[in-house]
Amino acid sequence: MAGVGGGNDFQWCFSQVKGAIDEDVAEADIISTVEFNYSGELLATGDKGGRVVIFQREQESKNRPHSRGEYNVYSTFQSHEPEFDYLKSLEIEEKINKIRWLPQQNAAHSLLSTNDKTIKLWKISQRDKRAEGYNLKDEDGRLRDPFRITSLRVPVLLPMDRMVEASPRRIFANAHTYHINSISVNSDHETYLSADDLRVNLWHLEITDRSFNIVDIKPANMEELTEVITAAECHPHQCNVFVYSSSKGTIRLCDMRAAALCDRQSKFFEEPEDPSSRSFFSEIISSISDVKFSHSGRYMMTRDYLSVKVWDLNMENRPVETYQVHEYLRSKLCSLYENDCIFDKFECCWNGADSAIMTGSYNNFFRMFDRNTRRDITLEASRENSKPRAILKARKVSTGGKRKKDEISVDSLDFNKKILHTAWHPKENVIAVAATNNLYIFQDKIN
Amino acid sequence: MEYKVEAHRIMSISLGKIYNSRVQRGGIKLHKNLLVSLVLRSARQVYLRDYYGGICLSAQQAREWCEGEYMDSEQDKLVPGSTESLPESDGQSEVAVDKQEPSNVVESHAALDVESEASGEQDHAENGVLDSGCSELKTPEESPEASPTCEVSNVENLHEPIVPHTCTNRKRSADDSELTDSLPKKTKVMSSTLISKNDEKKAETEEMDTSNVSSLITIFGSSFSGLLSSEDGAQPDSEAEDSDSGQICCDQMLKNLNPWSTAIVAF
């Protein structure tokens, strides 16, 4: 079965799965964000318990030429703790909403992680050597009496077990009244933006006690509120440009050079609604849950409940491509509203070449679309397909009355098994798929 | 008909979600609550579409239902001039049911746009009433429509509020057409006025499925007896004849109305 992703026919294989196998999933273990770093060497996940787990790819070994390096745990730390806002009598969840890596500038790695209210910059550094033979102190660290020193020696570096430390270097707090939904590092590598339901703030990575508010859509009278900000991202190359999406299905592109407060957009992207498909839930399903620029910066992709749309930044009145993710759910919207699934926020991602896009669905299915061939494929992240290098079989949901063999009917889908977070390696065909508390890593088959 | 049941169900679910969001960990999620409120509003609009079309409120009832919120001086203008021709059991003396009400009712755009069949006026009424069809379950369930009573204030302009007629209309499309036969003008007045007052309702009236009308007309030939026979008026096939029954269903609605309106207003 032909795969999708590289432009050529290839197939996706299982590589690894991380996480407990138990049927009973602790809520704190549910993965809430997945992100590769710029080189793809590191893969970070955040969970509802406020923890961050970073996986590092092992060097390719000669012993196993068929598989690329595996991802193994590199560092685990508690990024956020639950807090209590005494003034408002509100508990602040420790769930990690987003992780964004900073470009690597030295031997250490840095990332931003955020919960609903506070963003933290973490530095992850490793030590695998230690110095021995100090003059002024003993091996156990006690200071030596200077008068007892009779000779000098040069300390030598000896290998030690690798020790990885994560330390919070900056804490950006108290700038958001509403729940933070996005953070995005700017291409200038000095600033980043954070967005909540009604505001977007611009920060400098070095300055924690101040941020600039660049978008504010809060109405004077909250009763007049009609839309909220759902996602925001900086342009990958133009450090003055960013976009933010709204709950009404619109995207606004703003240029920070135009004004200090970017309430007036430079571009406004909206596709006219199809009046024939109006229902009670039209507004909910048009709400954009994720927006991502392509690596080239020429396109952006938006995810709403049922589809993924690719927009050309030069054309505002409609997307250039629309892909249906699970159109068979359109007739089930009422049930999905009842069980709250209609509010699920699916993310989407590009591959390194911008030739393919990926997004998640229910029943642990995820979908990939090849933009060139227009082919799409549905794959499943499940323990049953977890044999090493097992080729993933394409899945299909039967929409008609007749269910073919190997197809699954819409009513049999497990809506508790949802894939909201996926990530694609920036350079290779390696993908990370978060299925509740498990992280699956798939790669293309190497012959 | 189904739309109304569905709309009501969605409204209940939405209110439940809004309520639950207050106790959820992490505080109230603005985005989700906004979306839920949009759904609530859409469902409410659909629900009200029929409600207003069919509802026949006396000035007094409207006043009660709205808990005084929506009533204004216009209410006083509602004079039950004509004597009731139908027996009213609950002493709603202000309810004036004048079967001879001439069709000099408020000319609503909707009423005018609606196709008329055998009895043109009643078509208008029906369309206003039964756009999505009346479901059997209407009477008690419709009471949650209390919040819409803010728009019910438009009733003030009704020349002749028609309680039994309304209830019946709301209850079942079949019966409505019959009612219209018997009280064509009043229904028209009712619905027309309501519709004309409310742009939303007007727009929706225009969308009405006129195929309902013919069935409504035939159904209207029967009586109100069904209203009396069931507690909640949920007897689609029974026929409503009595204004009494209409009154009863209104009373039931009235009882359920207040808690709902309070809930909605409070939120």
Automatic annotation (TrEMBL), chain A:
It comes from the Eukaryota. InterPro entries: PP2A_PR55 (IPR000009), PP2A_PR55_CS (IPR018067), WD40/YVTN_repeat-like_dom_sf (IPR015943), WD40_repeat_dom_sf (IPR036322), WD40_rpt (IPR001680). Signal peptide: none annotated. One of its GO terms (molecular function) is protein phosphatase regulator activity. Keywords: Repeat, WD repeat. One of its GO terms (cellular component) is protein phosphatase type 2A complex. Belongs to the phosphatase 2A regulatory subunit B family. PP2A consists of a common heterodimeric core enzyme, composed of a 36 kDa catalytic subunit (subunit C) and a 65 kDa constant regulatory subunit (PR65 or subunit A), that associates with a variety of regulatory subunits. This is Serine/threonine-protein phosphatase 2A 55 kDa regulatory subunit B. It comes from Oncorhynchus kisutch. The gene is PPP2R2D.
From TrEMBL, chain B:
Residues 76-149 are annotated as: Disordered. Residues 82-92 have a biased composition (Polar residues). Belongs to the IER family. This is Immediate early response 5. It comes from Oncorhynchus kisutch (Coho salmon). The gene is LOC109889075.
